[in-house]
Design goal:
Distance between the termini: 38 Å
Helix content: 55-70%
Number of strands: 6
Number of domains: 2
CATH architecture of the largest domain: 3-Layer(aba) Sandwich
Largest sheet: 4 strands, mixed
CATH class of the largest domain: Alpha Beta
Number of helices: 6
């Protein structure tokens, strides 16, 4: 059995570690609330853009664009794949699940071009010799609309230059409990999906589009994709924070169990030391009396 001093030192060490995990839990909780509030303020705008894009497409469903394909057409290649990971670990299986989904998509499209958000993902793919776009170095922390617009500009720039001809995004959806990894195709859109009438009164109002439906639709698609990427970044970041909160909470629970056991062992060791001292004193007293 360890001495009482060794047990006391270990109790103090676990207590200091618990302070760190508790602070990380509180920081993650605060960050998640702030980021979610930013998303809720911008979501109505991007939802309106999505509805407007559908209405314009119904008025000009024969629009020719790299953003749209017919139902019978196959997904054009090469494919661009954007995967969102965290900048650090200590988030349970968050990073592993996102990377696993990206690897499945890479196996499906071997000629794909990989874009990685988050330092953890870049480090993983570098270690495993998987090539990715090195100039695409965006942080996963503190997602903003400005950052999403820059990401969208890079992705669509490669799309227009035909470096890629379709785009997928791999992210973690917070609305599915923080553990559901989503794989969504950003572009091209299926024409049948855009023809779904979400608002029965959408065609009741007639608009005149200047300079034309095609030009406006192109710009609306860019804004809509920026909004979708922003939403994916926020959902992934909140999922990361949720996973980190769960990991820190589990660490605190384990620390409490260890502290309870160590305190019991400390009391036993302390009681044993006291008993040994009393025994030594009693033996010494008996020996002294026997000499007299």
């Amino acid at each position: 059995m360890s001495s009482a001093k060794e047990i006391r030192d270990r109790i103090n060490g676990i207590g200091e570690t618990k302070k760190i995990t508790t602070a990380m839990y509180l920081i993650a909780s605060t960050k998640m609330r702030r980021v979610r509030q930013g998303l809720e303020r911008t979501r109505p705008y991007f939802d309106a853009l999505r509805a407007e894009m559908r209405r314009m497409f119904r008025h000009a469903d024969e629009t020719s664009s790299a953003f749209f394909i017919n139902d019978e057409e196959v997904i054009p290649s090469p494919v661009g794949i954007m995967v969102i990971t965290a900048d650090k670990g200590l988030a349970g299986g968050y990073n592993v699940n996102a990377i696993k989904a990206a690897e499945q998509l890479l196996a499906r499209y071997p000629d794909s071009k990989l874009y990685v958000v988050g330092e953890f993902g870049r480090h993983y793919f570098t270690q495993h010799g998987v090539p990715f776009e090195n100039s695409f170095c965006y942080s996963a922390d503190d997602p903003t609309v400005h950052k999403s617009r820059n990401i969208c500009s890079v992705l669509l720039g490669d799309l227009k230059s035909q470096v890629t001809r379709s785009l997928y995004i791999v992210y973690t959806d917070i609305r599915s409990g923080g553990e559901s990894v989503k794989t969504r195709r950003l572009v091209p859109f299926r024409r049948s999906a855009l023809k779904v009438d979400e608002d029965p009164e959408a065609d009741a109002v007639d608009f005149e589009y200047m300079p034309g439906v095609h030009a406006i639709l192109e710009n609306v698609v860019l804004s809509y994709l920026t909004g979708f990427i922003y939403s994916a970044l926020v959902d992934s970041y909140c999922s990361e924070l949720t996973a980190r909160m769960e990991a820190m909470n589990a660490a605190n629970d384990n620390a409490d169990e260890m502290l309870q056991e160590l305190r019991l062992n400390y009391q036993r060791a302390r009681q044993g030391a006291i008993t040994a001292e009393i025994t030594e004193i009693s033996s010494g007293a008996r020996h002294k009396r026997s000499k007299k």
